[in-house]
Amino acid sequence: MDSYKYTVLLVDDEEEVIQVIMKKIDWEGLGFSVIGYANNGVKALEMVEEYQPDVVMTDIRMPYMDGMELAHRIREEFPGTKILIFTGFDEFEYAKEAVHLEVEEYILKPVNSVEMTKVFGQMKAKLDQEISEKRNAETLQRYYLESLPLLQANFYTTLIEGRIREEELEKYLQDYQISLPGPCFCCLVVHTSATQTPEGMSPLLLSTSVQKQAQERLEKRWRTKEFAYLGNTVLLAQLQDENEISELTDECDRFCRYVRRMIGAVVTVGIGEVCRNILDVSKSFAGAREAVSYRGIYGATRAINIREIAPQENREAGTAGEEELTRLFKMIRLGSGKEVAQAVERYWNHIFNPQDSLQQHHVAVMELVSALYRFAAGNEIELDEEQASENMGELYARLSDMEPENLKNWLLEISLSFREKLITARSRSTKSFVIKAMEYVQNHYSDEDISLDHVCEILGVSGSYFSTIFEKETGNSFIGYLTDYRMEQAARLLIGTNEKSYIIAKQVGYGDPNYFSYVFKRKYGVSPSKYRTEHTERDR
Fold it and tell me: Are residue 275 and residue 200 in the same domain, yes or no?
């Protein structure tokens, strides 16, 4: 701890005062180093943001931003920074506000080296104690984090066994830092054969390898939680929609073939029912385990979905094609033209069987027409004149009389048409939030309260994300862009009008005319009045 040097920022508009303080105090001996000094509150706040010093020692009376405002901003944005106030103004109100701001000390000028040494000696002791406590807390936090994987695995085990009560759930999730947003859940049981193992590899090692591969291939897409249970790997998958279960099944099927080829493991993945309540995953787990038991009938090295192993004839009419139709609509929204064509082919092969009766064919056509109309309405797709000229009954009658190949071509054509319309609509309606932010600045630059947080709230994005994207797109920070735009407008008003400088300051969003002059000079190198004079003379 003795070797640790705490950093100090000195703030005073009188440089000679700063120099006296720097010379009078043995900073090195006290365990501090002065990282710099600022002559006003605005500059000081910039330096605090950049260097985040341990201590800020500031005067009260300063231009642009006084010490009290600076202390208030530091307390809000950097609560760990200690604040010392020194001033020649021994006034009760200042002292009272300093106490309210939790200022460490209130020191009167002229600065006494003995008093300052005492204050900073006490400050170092306090900082040392805080760091010591923090490090102890960090140690406990490290132990806690190290035990988290085991705690989480125990929770998942208890969950699939159906032993979590609803009133306990939220506390478990919070304590064990588990996020399960869903909204849909599904249990997968990954069974690795212990009798068919590569030469020289133990069943346990093989099973561990399979679990690692499952995590790598499934975790990102399905936000899976992996844990071992009774010799198998169990995965809790999260789906955005119940219909995604078909996509998950296909992915698991590919996974089974992958591990067979790569590491020689014979793996069967049992997939349970999809549920919306996390407490129902015990039922999903039971279904997944049952599905694995059917590997003797349906074969190993594959995924078996419990929904798919019921006899075909017992399924409800129309259920067989729901997943493929969902896939088709997804490709219309998000896929390429080739992917749409593939989805049409899959749907067609799944639904339209040459051996179907005429009645079955008509039912399939009716369901298809109805689904297409709902999709168009739900996605606000404007139908072509030809498409809109027919009502649903007329369209159904026309399609029912088509030859199968012509009907399939019609489905492909209208699917591609819907896709193009969605692309056009998105490109027309979607506008970059960077452009929206710039437009907001241009329309509201006179508002003193405009800020990064305010704009982000309007746009519905985080500050960190917005700042990164804005700077990447414009080459400037948002605050930098706002300041530049305000200064450009101020310059225009100075040349084009006879308004006083303080009025122009207010018109471009600055309540403090002195600070306005400071920012203007920083950008243009001259004061507003001189800028006006120079440009007026030039135009004569």
Answer: yes
